[in-house]
Every structure is written in structure tokens, then in C-alpha cells.
Amino acid sequence: MILNRYEKMIARRYLLPGKGEGFIFLVASISLAAVMLGVAALIVVMSVMNGFRAELFDKIVGLNGHAVVQGYGGRLDNWQEIAAQARATPGVTSVTPLIEQPLLVVYQGRAEAALIRGMEARDIRANPSLKANVVAGSLDAIRAGSDKVAIGSRLAENLGVSVGQTITVINPSGRSTPFGTMPRQLPYEVGAIFEIGIYDLDKAYIVMSMEDAQTLLLLGDKVQMVELQTADPDRIGEYMAPLARQVEGKAVIIDWRQMNSSLFEALQVDRVVSFVILSLIILVAVFNILSSLIMLVRAKTRDIAILRTMGATRASLLRIFVTVGLSIGSLGMLAGLVLGFVILYFRQGILNGVQLLTGQPLWDPSIRFLTTLPSKPDPVEIVGICLMAVGFSFLATLYPAFKAANTDPVQVLRYE
206-234 pLDDT, tens per residue? Predict the structure, then answer.
């Protein structure tokens, strides 16, 4: 808003406390602080929610793929043909045959539920979620016929096992004997321990070579599914449509949206609700700006009347009070922007400090899925939050500004 020299001088004067105007200045300061806190809270919460979704998506989809072609009855007989068709499908970037089966793992009397994941050795070493998160041992040890496996860090902790020690995997669906079905119990040496950062995966996954998994589950040369990675996960439906027609009747395609639909829908709902609720903080701050300007107009009624008699126009007074309110809102917005980024930068330290003071585990990985507090600021969202704060502040200035502009100097100065 363009102001001339005297309008700038008056607006600056009204922004600073004068004699007997300490209460008005206090209300204006509270308004600025409220806008700051509202903007900071929105930036922090929305960035954490974005980071939470992005981390979950990267880690879950990075390990499980964007889609899987799953055979009926848990077996995919003609998986080589389906893998070839998938590789020829536009948009598909990688194809990985998989075996995935929940079983039981035992070590020195301790038993834990585990999810066995059989992959070809080259796919194990090339998987970004695995190779970037090895905390002990090496994935190079996981080879066909090596009887070595990689396990999640939480599972290793629960079993009390480390690299080089031997665990026993139990498959209840063993071979039939005259005495009934005998479970298969095969020993495997722990060759590597990984920590993906998602609690449910780290406490369950055991990764082994495809050949070892086929031997354990008596699958022969068959697999259970073929995992697919695509160029753009948001276009998964478009990419999978032609392949779905090719495998119809032989297998079913399940994409990441179906595999994790409830989780990501819950995150989206939580994100929208958090935005709406925290926006109320800015709305409360805007009402504070409105009340402080109304008090300022009432306190300056005589000054406004004198300005009018000296030639000040209604438009000039309108600009002055709109500038005062916008200045409070804009300063609060800028302070909130800085405060929000400071909190995001030190978020993990702040979280640890609060946990230490309260003695409560505020970020339990078994509940939150991730081991650390994530963050991913979205520039578009941040700009939208800032514009919303400034826009609300502008709307709050209109009534007191018009009230000041419509002041009748004759009525005010009649008895002066």
C-alpha cells in the first residue's frame, strides 16, 4: 500500500505506544504474538505431517514396491512370463520376483513372529531401502544356498541375536508323514541386520535368497508375487491398466494405494483437520487485531477529527489504519515464519527435551511407525499460510479503518 510522507508518519506514530495508550499497545503486541504462534504452529504441523507421509511412503513403498502382481492361492506359476510382460509395460521401471510368508523364528528359546521375504541376491543388494540401512554385517553374505539371512534390527533385539549367530525358522506347512504333517525347521545364520526406520518392518522382516525361501516353503521354482516399481507412483492406475488385462484370470494386481489405503487416508484426514483447527489460532489473533484497532480509533477520535479539518481525506485515513493493522499482521507472520523454521530445525532436540522433562515417551516407534520425527516443508503450503495470515489481518482492518474514515469532525469538535 502506497502512503505519502504524512500518512507514513501518522501510521508509525499509531504503531508505537503513546502516553496513556499502554493497554492498546499491549493488545496489539498480543495480536502480533498470536499471529506469530499461529503461523509457526501451522508451518510446523503441516511440515511434520508432510514429512511423516513422505517418509512412510518412501520406506514402505521402497521396500514393497508401487504394485505387486499376486498369484491366486499364494503361488505364481508362470511368473517369468508375467515378469516379461511387466518389463514391456510403459512406465514400469523395475520388476522383482518375490516370496513373502509369515512364519515363526526361534533363537535360544525365544520365539517371534516373522515375515519371510525371499528375493534374488542381486535384488537384495540393489534394494535402496535395504542397502542404505544396514547397521551390522553385509548384504553380500546373502546368496543362493548360503543359508544366511538379513533381519530387522527390532527383531534382532527381541530375539537377542547378532551377526554370525544362527536362528531357526519354522514352517508349519511341512511334509506329510504317517504321523501327520511335520513342521519344517531350518537353521539360518544372521549375515546382516538392517534398520529401515519403520517399526513394524524392523520387528518382523527376515530377508533371504529366493532359492532358500523356495526350499523353506516347498515352492519348487515358483514365486508368490512379482513386485513392480514405476516412474510415477501417482500414475500407478494408468501404468497398470494394460498389464491388468494381460494377467486377467492368472493373477491380480494390487497397487500401493490398496495395500496402504487406510493408513494414507487417515494421514490425509488428520492433515486437513490439523490445518483447520490450527487456523483458528490465526483467526483469534485477527480478532485481537480488530479489537486493538477499534480501541485505537476510539482513543484517537479527536486526533482524527483534527486531521479531517486540516484536509485529510477519508481515503487517507483508510490507508493509515489499514497499514497499522497490516503491519501488525505482517510482522507477526514474519516472526512466525522464522519461529516455525527454528522449531523445525531443532525439532528432534525439542522432542527429546520434552520427553525428558515429562518422563513420557511422546514418540513411541511402535505407535508412530517411524523412529524419528520427520519434516518436509512445502513451499506452496508455507506461502499459502503466510497469505492467509496477511489476508485475515487485512480483513480485520476494514471495519475500524472505515469507522475512522467516516468520523464527522463537526460532531467530535462541537464542544472543543
Answer: 999 989 888 888 888 888 888 888 888 87
Cβ within 8 Å of residue 211, ≥6 positions away: 144, 145
Q: Calculate mean pLDDT across residues 299-313.
A: 79
Boundary of a domain, candidates 230, 254, 272: 230
* 47 shares a domain with 99: no
CB within 8 Å of 415: residues ≥ 6 apart: none
Give the span between the Cα atoms of 224 and 206, in whole angstroms. Answer: 16
Query: Are residues 268 and 351 part of one domain?
Result: yes
Residue span of the structural domain in which 27 resides: 5-58+263-413
Q: Where are the beta strands (DSSP E) in 238-374?
A: 251-255
Cβ 163 vs Cβ 191: under 8 Å:
yes
Clarify whether residues 323 and 398 are in a common domain: yes
Q: What backbone torsions phi and psi does residue 102 show, to the nearest 5 degrees? A: -75, 125
Long-range contacts of 306-314 (CB under 8 A, 24+ apart): 306/409, 306/413, 307/10, 308/407, 308/409, 309/409, 309/413, 314/405, 314/406
Q: How many CB atoms are located within 10 Å of the residue 413 CB?
A: 14
Helices (H) and strands (E) in the chain, counts: 17, 10
CA atoms within 13 A on the CB side of 111: 6
- 251-260 pLDDT tens trace: 888 887 777 7
Give the Å distances, CA to CA, from 312 to 282, 296, 380.
33, 18, 41
- Is residue 306 situated within a structural domain? yes
CB count within 10 Å of CB 135 equals 13
The verdict on 222 and 299 lying in the same domain is no
Confirm whether 406 is domain-assigned.
yes
- pTM: predicted TM-score of the whole model, two decimal places: 0.67
Residue 93 has a pLDDT of 86
Number of structural domains the chain divides into? 2
Question: Which 3 state secondary structure label does DSSP give 52?
Answer: helix
* Strands annotated E in 65-153: 67-71, 92-107, 110-119, 134-137, 148-152
Angstrom distance (rounded) from CA 81 to CA 78:
6
- Stated length of the chain: 416
Q: Phi and psi for 132 in degrees, rounded to 5?
A: -85, -5
Do 360 and 283 belong to one domain?
yes
Residues 136, 179 within the same domain: yes
Of the two residues 228 and 4, the one the predictor is more confident about is 228
